[in-house]
TrEMBL record:
Annotated Pfam families: HVSL
UniProt keyword terms in alphabetical order: Hydrolase, Lyase, Nuclease, Nucleus
Highest taxon above the source species: Eukaryota
Organism placement in taxonomy: Eukaryota, Fungi, Dikarya, Ascomycota, Pezizomycotina
Organism: Moelleriella libera RCEF 2490
Signal sequence, renumbered to the chain: none
Protein purpose: Phosphodiesterase responsible for the U6 snRNA 3' end processing. Acts as an exoribonuclease (RNase) responsible for trimming the poly(U) tract of the last nucleotides in the pre-U6 snRNA molecule, leading to the formation of mature U6 snRNA.
Family as reported in the entry's similarity comment: Belongs to the 2H phosphoesterase superfamily. USB1 family.
Name of the molecule in the record: U6 snRNA phosphodiesterase
C-alpha cells in the first residue's frame, strides 16, 4: 500500500491566471552536460513529507471503488486508528528513473491484460517515497494509541541502535494473503553483511544473519504489537524465514502470473540496464509510526534526555 498520495486538484487554473514573466535565462551547464535548475532551490526536508502523508478522506466507510477495487486487510472500525510502523526511503531522481524503467519493462513482460500499478509516482507525477514494513497494517482503539506509540518509541530508543544501510538483493513477487494482489518488490539485505550465494534472479540468496539490524527492529516492533493484542509481522516459516522477508514494494497487480512470466521478470535484476541497482545503498536512520494521519519519527540515535522526537518537532513546538 502506498503511504503517500495527493488530491486530484489541478494547477491549470492557477497557471492560467499568472501574468507572463520575463524571458527565462539560459540554464548554466555544468561538467557532464547536465543543466542546473533555474530555481536553485534546495530539496524539501524529509520531515516535510510527513505533514502530507495521507490522502483526503473521500468516505467514512470502506469503499473498494475508491481504491481500484481493493479491500482493506483490516475492515475499518469506527473509532479505531489505522496504524503502521515502517522505514522510509526517498529514491534519488536517478534511482527513481531506473525503477520507473524497471516497472515499464515489467509491464511489457506481463502483458496488457495484467496492469502493473506503480508505487513510484502519484497521479500528479510526484515522486513518492517507498517503505519497508516493520508491522502489519494495524487497527488501534483510541484508548491505547498513545500508549502504543510510547511503547514503540521507548523500545527503539532503549536498543541504542545506530543508523545503518541496506541494499537491494534481488526481485520477487509477493502474493498477498488477504487479497488477489501480487506485489512486485525489491528484496533487501543489510549492506555490511551482503554475504551469500547468487540467487536464480541474479540477486543474493539471503542466508541466516543477512539482516541483523532489520531483525532487531522487527523483534522490537513485534513485541510492542503483541503486548497490545495486535498481530506480529513475518512469522517465520520453512518457505520464507523472517530474515529473508524484508522488501520494498514498487508495484502491484491483480491476479496470479504464470511461473514462466514471473521468472522472466525476476531475471531483470541481472540485466545490464539495471545493474546499477546492485550498488545502491539505502540509508536507515529513522523508524516512522503512522497513526491515523499523524507520522511520528524515532531516530536510531541516542537523544538528549527530555527531548521528544516526533510530531512536535516537525512544527517547532
Amino acid at each position: 500500500m502506498g503511504l503517500v498520495d495527493y488530491s486530484s486538484l489541478s494547477s491549470s487554473s492557477a497557471d492560467e491566471s499568472q501574468p507572463a514573466g520575463p524571458p527565462s535565462k539560459r540554464r548554466r551547464r555544468h561538467a557532464g552536460g547536465e543543466s542546473q535548475s533555474d530555481s536553485g532551490l534546495p530539496p524539501l526536508p524529509d520531515m516535510f513529507h510527513d505533514l502530507y502523508a495521507s490522502t483526503v478522506r473521500q468516505s467514512v466507510a470502506d469503499d473498494p471503488s475508491l481504491h481500484q477495487g481493493r479491500k482493506r486487510q483490516n475492515p475499518h472500525i469506527a473509532g479505531n486508528w489505522p496504524t503502521h510502523i515502517y522505514l522510509e526511503w526517498h529514491p534519488s531522481k536517478v534511482q527513481h528513473d531506473v525503477l520507473v524503467a524497471l516497472v515499464e519493462k515489467t509491464q511489457k513482460q506481463i502483458g496488457c491484460a495484467n496492469r502493473l500499478h506503480s508505487f513510484l509516482t502519484s497521479d500528479l507525477g510526484t515522486h513518492l517515497p517507498l517503505h519497508i514494513s516493520l508491522s502489519k497494517p494495524l487497527s488501534l482503539p483510541a484508548s491505547i494509541k498513545d500508549d502504543f506509540l510510547d511503547g514503540v518509541e521507548e523500545s527503539i530508543r532503549s536498543g541504542g541502535m545506530s543508523p545503518f544501510s541496506i541494499k537491494p538483493a534481488g526481485l520477487a513477487w509477493h502474493k498477498s494473503p488477504d487479497s488477489d494482489r501480487s506485489f512486485f518488490v525489491l528484496r533487501v539485505a543489510t549492506a555490511s553483511t551482503a554475504m551469500a550465494d547468487k540467487h536464480h534472479d541474479g540477486g543474493e540468496s539471503l542466508m541466516q544473519g543477512t539482516n541483523p539490524e532489520l531483525m532487531q527492529l522487527l523483534v522490537k516492533c513485534n513485541k510492542v504489537a503483541t503486548n497490545f493484542g495486535q498481530p506480529p509481522l513475518y512469522q517465520q516459516t520453512h518457505d520464507e524465514p523472517a530474515h529473508a522477508a524484508f522488501h520494498i514494494s514498487i508495484g502491484w497487480t491483480l491476479g496470479r502470473l504464470d511461473d514462466e512470466t514471473c521468472l522472466e521478470v525476476l531475471g531483470n535484476f541481472k540485466d545490464n540496464a539495471f545493474r546499477e541497482i546492485h550498488s545502491w545503498h539505502i540509508p536507515v536512520d529513522t523508524v516512522k509510526t503512522k497513526i491515523g494521519n499523524i507520522v511520528s519519527r524515532t531516530p536510531l540515535t541516542l537523544t538528549r534526555p527530555g527531548k521528544k522526537e516526533g510530531v512536535d518537532n516537525l512544527i517547532g513546538v
